[in-house]
Write a structure and sequence with these properties.
Oligomer: single chain
Largest sheet: 6 strands, parallel
Strand content: 15-25%
Strand order of the largest sheet: 7-2-1-9-10-11
Order of helices and strands: HHEHEHEHEEHEHHEHEHEHEHEH
Number of helices: 13
Structural class: alpha/beta
Shape: globular
Distance between the termini: 49 Å
Helix content: 40-55%
């Protein structure tokens, strides 16, 4: 053996066997994941990185794609905002639509992909006849969209229309801010059981919400329809100034990216015009990099663009984000509480 070339890349770090026992905290379970391999070790690393990101000195940008609000992740994001762990939220018009629906009294419901004895198509044809929209195994009665339209026309658009008449187009961030104010007001006045949600929390804590593809949603459709008979209009470029200012002013910056698409790119590209790049990044996704698309691009690839610092700590977990987001957030927050 002494004549052989040393195995310089080999470290004697044997795989352990994770323990799962009654009474464990989420943080303890995440620690056990660190003994294992494949996705378990990736989630453990994501918890390590995200716990560092939750330091008070780190400016945190949070990208939220997909159907995360209607599938039950709404409170997690709202609580992170309220506790000062999100400084800028980049999300979809769809998430904001479903967030508002719950704020004003609507609900999403457990459903099924298809009924027994029926094909998926036959099941969806029946749902169409019954006026029920399906998001995989989540149902939303269509009458909630009528309630949402009335909410926008009565509580949100008139104020923004007046601002447009006085000074021109408003930014998308101003639109989301007014949506959050209205959601909070109606939720409080109506004594609604469900919390006021993400946009309301952002409004109450001065956290900007950026929605660069707002047109790609029911929220965007309603905004367009209202603009056809009023002075209301949106400036799609205005938010670039404020989010870039946040990046410029950050001493340290972290990105939590849930899913891909526009929220992921908008969050990461901000650093292309800032003097520095992200010091931390966590990605929770099911998109793989082989297609060459941005949604599946690795965070290491983002480093080549200057979106992440060369020495940045980053981790990616490839699994359903409705499973991984609660685990990573709960375990990281437990670590923060323990170190404080």
């Amino acid at each position: 053996m002494s004549d052989e070339t040393p195995r310089e890349t080999f470290e004697h770090d044997p795989i352990g066997h994770a323990e799962a026992r009654a009474g464990m905290t989420v943080g303890e379970l995440a620690d056990e994941y660190g003994n294992a391999g494949i996705g378990a070790s990736a989630l453990h690393e994501a918890v390590d990185v995200y716990a560092e990101m939750l330091d008070d000195d780190v400016t945190n940008f949070f990208g939220l794609a997909g159907a995360m609000v209607p599938t039950g992740m709404r409170r997690i994001v709202a609580d992170l905002i309220r506790d000062g762990h999100i400084d800028a939220l980049v999300t979809t018009g769809a998430n904001l639509t479903h967030d508002a629906i719950e704020a004003i009294g609507g609900k999403h419901h457990h459903g099924q992909v298809h009924e027994e004895g029926k094909t998926e198509r036959e099941h969806d044809e029946r749902l169409r006849d019954e006026g029920v929209d399906r998001i995989y195994n989540v149902y939303l009665p269509q009458e909630h969209f009528a309630l949402f339209e009335s909410h926008l026309r009565d509580e949100v658009f008139p104020t923004l229309e007046a601002e447009c008449e006085e000074s021109g187009a408003v930014s998308i961030q101003r639109f989301t801010e007014e949506l959050g104010r209205a959601n909070a007001a109606v939720n409080d006045e109506g004594d609604i059981d469900e919390g006021a949600g993400v946009a309301a929390a952002a409004y109450e804590h001065d956290v900007p919400i950026y929605c660069p593809a707002v047109q790609d949603s029911v929220l965007g459709l309603q905004a367009w329809m209202y603009s056809q008979t009023s002075e209301f209009t949106l400036d799609a470029l205005a938010d670039m100034t404020t989010i870039t200012d946040q990046a410029f002013e950050a001493e340290e910056a972290g990105a939590m990216v849930v899913g891909g698409g526009v929220p992921k790119n908008y969050t990461l590209q901000t650093m292309l015009v800032a003097p520095d790049a992200y010091d931390y990044a966590v990605q929770l996704t099911m998109d793989t990099p082989e297609t060459g698309g941005l949604s599946g691009a690795t965070l290491d690839e983002a480093r080549s663009w200057g979106k992440l610092e060369k020495a940045a700590r980053n981790a990616s977990v490839y699994a359903d984000a409705t499973i991984t987001l609660p685990l990573v957030v709960a375990a990281a927050r437990e670590r923060v509480e323990n170190r404080d």
